[in-house]
Design a protein that fits this description.
single chain; 5-stranded antiparallel beta sheet; 5 strands
């Protein structure tokens, strides 16, 4: 999905990976509904441990991300690590790292990068931050939805079925279906429910 939103995505990621050979985690649009987009190349065993032990809200780096914007080296995050998440991460050569956080409306986007041998320099952090900011603008900017597409999404948000939406709008069911398909495509949503959730997150219904 991100390959369609960020030009030359693989080569862009490779530039970051050169600075963070122990892995990176990239997430856009995190909210109550979950993230809109995720990419990560951490060690598979670490990913499995992190998920199985439900480290998300015990992780001091993730806690910092949820409460702040900007960038921070892991070593500068002064939050308690009661479950020794960072100690466990070191077993997978994740000793040094940096976190980057942005807000897009009511959602959080984040990038974390890590390496085993040294801290990232100020210049390297600035380089990564600039990339991340550009990606955030590309991924999270609101694509234009037509008034008709928004009308269909609004009907779905209100719990109406396809036939009810068609009757309410005075259009055919096939038109409702086509508008829903186009809206899903523009929002990069897999389902109508996800499209509605994304539209709500990005405040489409508040500005029309």
């Amino acid at each position: 999905m991100l390959t369609t939103l960020i030009p030359n995505f693989e080569s862009e990621i490779e530039q970051i990976h050169e600075l963070a050979p122990s892995g990176l985690f990239l997430m856009f649009g995190f909210s109550f509904w979950g993230p809109e987009h995720v990419y990560q190349n951490y060690h598979p065993e670490w990913t499995e441990i992190y998920q199985r032990r439900n480290y998300y809200f015990a992780d001091p780096v993730f806690a910092w991300i949820l409460s702040n914007t900007g960038s921070k080296r892991w070593s500068e995050i002064r939050l308690p690590d009661v479950r020794n998440v960072m100690k466990e991460a070191r077993r997978f050569n994740m000793k040094y790292g940096a976190a980057f956080s942005q807000r897009h409306n009511a959602t959080t986007s984040t990038l974390t990068v890590t390496r085993s041998d040294r801290e990232l320099t100020d210049a390297e952090i600035d380089f990564v931050d600039a990339k991340f900011c550009t990606w955030g603008q590309l991924v999270m900017n609101k694509p234009p939805l037509t008034a008709g597409e928004l009308d269909v999404l609004r009907g779905l948000k209100d719990g109406l079925g396809q036939r009810e939406i068609a009757t309410q709008l005075g259009i055919s069911e096939s038109t409702v279906k086509q508008r829903a398909i186009k809206a899903c495509g523009k929002l990069h949503a897999k389902t109508r429910t996800q499209a509605v959730a994304i539209a709500v997150q990005r405040n489409y219904f508040l500005t029309t």
